[in-house]
Design brief:
By secondary structure, the protein is α+β, with helices and mostly antiparallel strands. Among the domains are: 62 residues, OB fold (Dihydrolipoamide Acetyltransferase, E2P), CATH 2.40.50.100; 145 residues. 46% of the residues lie in helices and 18% in strands. It is built from seven helices and 14 strands. It has a six-stranded antiparallel barrel with strand order 1-10-13-12-11-14. Strands 2-9-7-4 form a four-stranded antiparallel sheet, with no helix packed on it. Strand 11 and strand 12 form a beta hairpin. Helix 3 runs antiparallel to helix 4, helix 3 packs antiparallel against helix 5 and helix 3 runs parallel beside helix 7. The N terminus and C terminus are likely disordered.
Length: 436
Amino acid sequence: MSDTTTSGRKTADTDTVVENTGGASATPATPAGNAPQATPPGKRKLLLALLGLAVVAAGAAYGAYYMTYARYHQSTDDAYVSGNLVQLTPQVSGTVVAVNADDTQIVKQGDPVVTLDGADAKVALLNAEATLGQTVRQVSGLYVNNDFYAATVAQRAADLARANDDLHRREAVAGTGAVSAEDIAHARDAVNVAQAALDAARQQAEANHALTDRTTVERHPNVQAAASKVRDAYLNYARNTLPAPVTGYVAQRSVQVGQRVAPGTPLMAIVPLDGVWVDANFKEGQLKHMRIGQPVELTADVYGGSVKYHGRVVGFSAGTGSAFAVLPAQNATGNWIKIVQRLPVRIQLDQRELQAHPLRIGLSMQVDADTRNDSGTQLGAATTTTYQTDVFAQYGAQADAEIAKIIGENEVVSHASAAKSSVKKVATREQVRNAG
């Protein structure tokens, strides 16, 4: 009996070993002392209550944030710096002989930036000035001729008076036989000749007055025509020097020395960085309460969030970006998928902040607009001229000064001739008086 018992125990032990080693993934039995214990119901309720309280607090905080701040602010990162690119283009054709500025350099308004060869224009100007001087002398001669023809009329009138006197004297003694009928006939012929000469002199005087009445040498049509040619030639000569229309930084320089350029050819761009602005592209759903004049806070990616700019809304674009695209969307054909549109909003920046931290055209901006006060308008009012330059007006003033100088120099000679003519006229009258 003992053997059987021993044999049975061995078999059981062997089965236990085989069962324990038969599979590598067998899980060892967990000791009774390490079994997991269930969370007490009271503690679970406390955790759920704390979680619910946290959710309510977060919701309340967001609600307060939305009611006091978020609903009054519209932000976008689809915003970029924009500005004026003033193109420098020639007004006359010519060959470039000097380029006085390059990219990244600053130029002042009125500085000569590009110079063209002006030899041909100089020759044309000299010819026009010579023609003007000659015309002034000719017109001045017309005014001198007025005095000359007046003196001629006076002389012819004196001749007529003398002829009449001779005729009357002869007719008075004709009855005595002292004067023949032939002498009287000759005296009458002399009166007729003197009368015809007087009429001719008067016609010449009137014809000359028709060329000079109600005008002066400076305003005479012939002088004005010659002066306009001088002005045109002077402008063509002066425009061989291209000044900077505005103060700014040179960009996109493409002109080279020796290049032949035509009117309107872009040579370079000048960017006035003190007048840049920001174009922020807001979604159409963000524009409900946005108005002109609302304050805006901005940051630039180039400086980071530590530098803040302040500005204000100054206008809204007349259309979305897609409306002005080269190939606008055709929503009336085929399947249509609605796409949220964006409208460019122009934002003016504070000039002092721009001077402290300059911005370049094309830089990315972060924009946050405060729409709390929506009492303004979305349509801009009519304004006066925003951009202008007077660097080209000086050419016209210089041309007028040159014309006045030429007229004055040549008119002095005509005045001297008029004085000499007056002396001759007085002498002629004295001779006529003495002859009478």
